[in-house]
């Protein structure tokens, strides 16, 4: 069955723009289009970039997951398969909001990592309210939502910003 990712929140544009921004991400997504693969299998085929790509897809909820039964006494492993085959865009937004979103999507990786590291350290293990981070760093809510959509290390749980569990 073909699933369609409906994008009606402007900040979700970042997911679409960053999902295929490198040849590795595109190759990983193509590889999991029709079959289940574990993070270890992906890393074996595509290197560490493949592991980062699958973490991004998992955090962006572009993949479905299941646990593979253990083999030879090993622990169960999470496997991944692409969930969506199409994007459907339906949104309207003020120019100021869209410009912030494109700013986040096109931000150089070094600048992005620097900000991400600061936020990651600040929220700690327990997480923090979005409003607190917004006030402390001087970022708008739209900027932060877009930023978290790009990050594989940060996620929202309600109105709280939390660290993502690593693969």
Helical coverage, percent range? 40-55%
**CATH third-level topology of the largest domain:** Arc Repressor Mutant, subunit A
- Please report the distance between the alpha carbons of the first and last residues: 27 Å
Shape: globular
CATH superfamily of the largest domain: Winged helix-like DNA-binding domain superfamily/Winged helix DNA-binding domain
Overall mean pLDDT stands at 89
What low-confidence regions span 5 or more consecutive residues with pLDDT below 50?
Answer: none
What number of structural domains do the residues give? Answer: 2
Supply database-style keywords.
8 strands, 49% helix, 8 helices, Arc Repressor Mutant, subunit A, 3-stranded antiparallel sheet, 2 domains, 167 residues
Short description:
The chain has 167 residues and is an alpha+beta fold. It is built from eight helices and eight strands, in the order E-H-H-E-H-H-E-E-E-H-H-E-H-H-E-E.
